[in-house]
Design a protein that fits this description.
17 helices, globular, mainly alpha
Length: 382
């Protein structure tokens, strides 16, 4: 759905493009605070757990966005007991057909995901934003993350980065997640005293901006030490959340991480190159009596996932149930995707750290296909 009034949430000096870099959660935080300001409340929130537990913000929010004839009141503010107050507040949400996702207990306990869903529902039902002076429409669909973005985010979170990554472009802007990933790839590469952590950053906006830029410039410098191709990428691009350049950096981080795992397979710790992965796969398939091989990761045979499935069967004989596997001369797109889903599931089952999505294999995204084979090589050598 399109919400023209989102332009009201822009801060001074921001453009629409800046708003589109925010995660849905950040947009909702801005929306709640915008409504609180309109209501004349002094309260502001920074999260959907600690800051909403007392139901005061929700009571003010619902009263502000409710249609005038909805009969919404602020009686909840008179209740001393928090559960009772939350129940009274949710009764008001009911009046505007927006009581969903949370119970009074969820509010009082500050269950973040459920409270986020509750607020998103309020926003969708009653955005209560003044239409912009210009005819500008922001499509909320644009906030949806792509398949590639989701895969990168899942990879980072699987490594246990802190804080968790919810939205790539805004959550990486200060370089701190990137440093953690680089430290996973090559322990000790980050000189942490050169980094300004969130706690160390200045309270003054102008100074903090310089500190964050310093972090991002240092991240680019370390990327070059890791032999990343960073032509045209500056620290300011990471800080600004430039999508194309941020994705280029993240892809190289993930590839380096996969190869760093593989370097554990060499006695001298030198990284394994792509041609060695292909040779390993073909030798393995030959040894296992499989009549299939690949020339490179772009090889169209990979579309069917059959080389990967056969490889899994050679690594762990008997694990593949071939009654689930589609084979034949002319396989449809659906057949290829079905095989890819089965291949990813079975690769993970035998302990391969696969981050790629089934579609990456059936569409032969060669970079992602490489990570699948690399992960299988790692599983084979465990």
């Amino acid at each position: 759905s399109s919400v023209p009034g989102l332009v009201n949430l822009l801060r001074e000096g921001e453009e629409l493009a800046d708003l589109m870099k925010l995660s849905p959660e950040q947009i909702l935080l801005r929306w709640v605070n915008h409504q609180l300001e309109k209501a004349g409340s002094s309260r502001r929130i920074r999260n959907f757990h600690e800051d909403i537990k007392d139901s005061e913000v929700y009571t003010e929010l619902i009263a502000q966005i409710a249609p005038k004839d909805a009969g919404v009141n602020k009686l909840a503010l008179e209740k001393k007991e928090l559960l009772e107050r939350a129940e009274t507040m949710l009764d008001q949400a009911e009046k505007i057909k927006s009581r969903a996702f949370v119970t009074p207990k969820d509010v009082v306990r500050g269950q973040e995901r459920l409270n986020l869903a509750f607020v998103a529902n309020l926003f969708n039902n009653h955005p209560s934003l003044d239409p912009p002076k210009e005819n500008i429409v922001i499509e909320m669909d644009n906030i949806e993350e792509s398949r590639e973005e989701k895969m990168f985010r899942n990879w980072m979170n699987s490594l246990g980065v802190s804080p968790r990554v919810h939205y790539l472009y805004s959550d990486l802007y200060d370089g701190l997640i990137i440093f953690q990933l680089m430290d996973f790839i090559r322990p000790g590469i980050v000189i942490w005293k050169k980094v300004k952590t969130a706690e160390q950053q200045s309270k003054m906006a102008a100074k903090r901006l310089q500190e964050v830029l310093g972090n991002c410039n240092y991240a680019v410098e370390l990327g070059k030490k890791l032999n990343f191709v960073l032509v045209g990428i500056a620290g300011s691009d990471i800080m600004a959340g430039n999508k194309t350049l941020t994705l280029a950096l993240i892809w190289q981080l993930m590839r380096a991480y996969t190869l760093s795992l593989l370097s554990q397979l060499n006695a001298d710790g030198t990284p394994i190159v792509e041609s060695e992965i292909i040779s390993w796969a073909n030798n393995k398939l030959l040894e296992g009596g499989k009549e299939v091989s690949i020339k490179h990761f772009q090889d169209k045979t990979n579309k069917t996932s059959l080389p990967i499935i056969h490889l899994i069967d050679v690594i762990k004989p008997g694990v593949i149930d071939y009654s689930f596997v589609k084979q034949g001369e002319s396989m449809s797109k659906e057949d290829c995707l079905s095989n890819a889903k089965y291949a990813v599931t079975m690769a993970r089952k035998i302990g391969a750290p696969v981050y790629a999505l089934p579609e990456d294999i059936s569409e032969v995204k060669h970079k992602m296909v490489m990570t699948v084979y690399a992960s299988l090589m790692l599983a084979d050598n465990k």
